[in-house]
Amino acid sequence: MRRSIWLLSLATLAFASPVAMDTDSEASSRHPRIVMIVAPREFTDREYNDPRSVFEAKGALVTVASTKTAHAVSHDLARLRIDTTIRELTLDQFDAIVVVGGTGALTYLLDDEALRNLIVAASRSNKIVAAICVAPAVLARAGVLRNTPATCYPDRRIIAILKMNGADYAERSVVVSGRIVTANGPESAKDFAVQVLEALRTLGARCASDTRAQI
To answer: What's the first-to-final CA gap in the chain, in angstroms?
Structure first.
């Protein structure tokens, strides 16, 4: 009787062990961690709300960061609670970084050194880097759009920033170039979010494949 119980326990452990061996990349692909960067003032409500609703509907974990804590205020004067500051973020806290548009992105984020360094580090670490509306100018200024197709709000000043920093401007609503995702404005916000999630899914699948190949 004791021998039967012992054998049954071994069989249970054998069947359970593959579940316990789930990789970090596979867990991340199921529940990706996305940090959304907003300006402390004058971010565009729809470019924040629509993507976040899409992200969370698919199980993503969203963190909101800005140049300071407490609250940010949108173009429509909506108050948004900020989870952390840009300076406090570290690469191991997220799988994708999404910069939200609005005129505040030009005023407060374009020349923010901490954000620029974070974007560069995220790009070099093969994270997903994304921006919408005027915010692709922030990516361009950080130097991560060089020789990369990208779109932005169709304003000559914003397009000029992209081109001056080596981006290959494309007049499209959403552009995916490897791990870089850009969109041109609020009308594209939901499709933009879907493409960010798809880029994360692809990245997660690739990481999982690489992990299995090494075992």
So the answer is: 38
pTM of the model: 0.84
Range of the domain at 90: 26-192
What does each C-alpha distance from 100 to 49, 134, 135 come to in angstroms?
A: 10, 8, 6
Contact 190, 54 (CB under 8 A): yes
Q: What is the pLDDT of residues 98-128, one digit of tens each?
A: 999 999 999 999 999 999 999 999 999 999 9
- Does some domain include residue 209? no
Write the CATH number for 112: 3.40.50.880
- The Cα 179–Cα 129 span in angstroms is 6
Q: Evaluate whether 148 touches 167 at the Cβ level (below 8 Å).
A: yes
Number of domains forming the structure of the chain: 1
